[in-house]
Amino acid sequence: MPNLKMDPDWLDAQCELYEDNWKSNRSGPEAVVAFALESLQPTDARLPLLLEPLIEVDIDRVWMDWRTKVSNHNQEHSPAEWCEQLALVPKLQDYLAAIATRNVNFSATESLLRKEYDARQTWGDAPRWDIVDSPWPNWSKLIRKPARHRVEIQSTEFPIPRIFDLCGLTEFGRQRSTDEESGAIVHEASVSRVIISNRTDATISRRQFRLQILSGNHAILTNLSQTNPLPINAAMMLESEAMAIVELPFAFRIQELRLRFT
Amino acid sequence: MHGILNFFTAAQKQCEITYNCLHLARLIYRKRHWRVSDRALRQFLQMVMMEIPPSSPGESTILGNYLPKLIRLAEKNLSPQLRRKVDENDIGGTVMRTIIRQAREGRLTIEESEDFWKLLVAVTLNKVRKKARYWKQQKRSISREQELAADGPRMEDIAVDLSTPLADPTDDEGQAFAVILEKLSGNLDETCQTVLAMKMEGLTHIQIAEKLGVSTRSVTRYVTRIQQELGQLNAESENGP
User: Fold this and answer.
1) ipTM field
2) I need a labelling partner for A3 at 20 to 30 A (CA). Which of A81, A141, B137, B181 fits?
3) How many CB pairs under 8 A join A and B?
């Protein structure tokens, strides 16, 4: 790779100009690529140097917007629809795909991975660090931050609350035969599992409920149990397999357990 | 050994300036108390704006900037009895080892230098408390050491106040700050002035970005501009009228 130089003032000006696009609601992978190609030729070797900061700027935009959208309009969609909407928020891979269609030679950088991860932690679905696609095996060490969301579990068994990080998708349930004792967290392929009661406690299902971080301050609570309803509050009982959007921080009791999500 | 000590002494002075200035800035800003000028204070704004690069707190930076201050903090929070058993230098060292280990394991990411300081303070005081608990246990209780009972605080008084502020700034300091800030603000555009105010209120880049509706990259750019202006102000003042 040749040692290319880009005038930092010009680059800043371009980024500033691109941010003006925000006001006209132009954002996303296509907007980034189109903007970059208005400034530089597809064959210009400096194009990747421009694309990287533009994508960084855009990632901030889409995830800030996402959080605002969920906060202001969470009644507009059902929880399931919000999950579908979440899948539509552009991810880094979408930017790379959009760039590839223009035959521009560009690949993800460490800085972009970190930016996407940080933005999703701050405003988005707070994915677990190890399920974000990365070509670098140790990248998590570079980007891993203290989790923004946590769950605090208190019961007679745990008079001193147990605290776990909440990332992306977390399930809560009774100990299975292969599980550790209650009060442990198990990280499975795409979901983390918090064991909230021991094997003998039939009042809590093995897969009782799931919490998915949706945006910076909202989550989707799903009752996974086919038999045990989930008492969210005095007025609302989440029936089997039902979903609800909850605003963080949020607390409820299930049997003798007190759970507080922040 | 002497080299290291000299290094730490120098670092300690630097830390004191940083910490005092930061504290001063916040206090004065909140009180909207601006008037006169003082050259020594010009540097503090730069320190307010300064940040540790995300996720890469280098060991030398940690040691150089924070260790002496931590040792003093530990010392301040150890009772005279406890100090017979525990060395504040050990606590400072243990804290550093903990922090460095966390950083190496990727469990430590700091966005703001002040966050880092708060983290160090919390870890240090936690270590002090642990040591206090250890030495309070009956068999080795320091309260059994009769000769120490008469003077010095009781173990119960080792209570630690994280929020204990430094002394309030004097009028001269306040006035000095005011002039510097006025000059600086005069050279900044409206957005940079807003960013400066927000930084001084302790907002992070992310919070500023959210409030202004801009990217975090833009916030970094504004902060850089403020630092450049401040650097220029410093250079001008050092070159004299």
Assistant:
1) 0.82
2) A141
3) 41
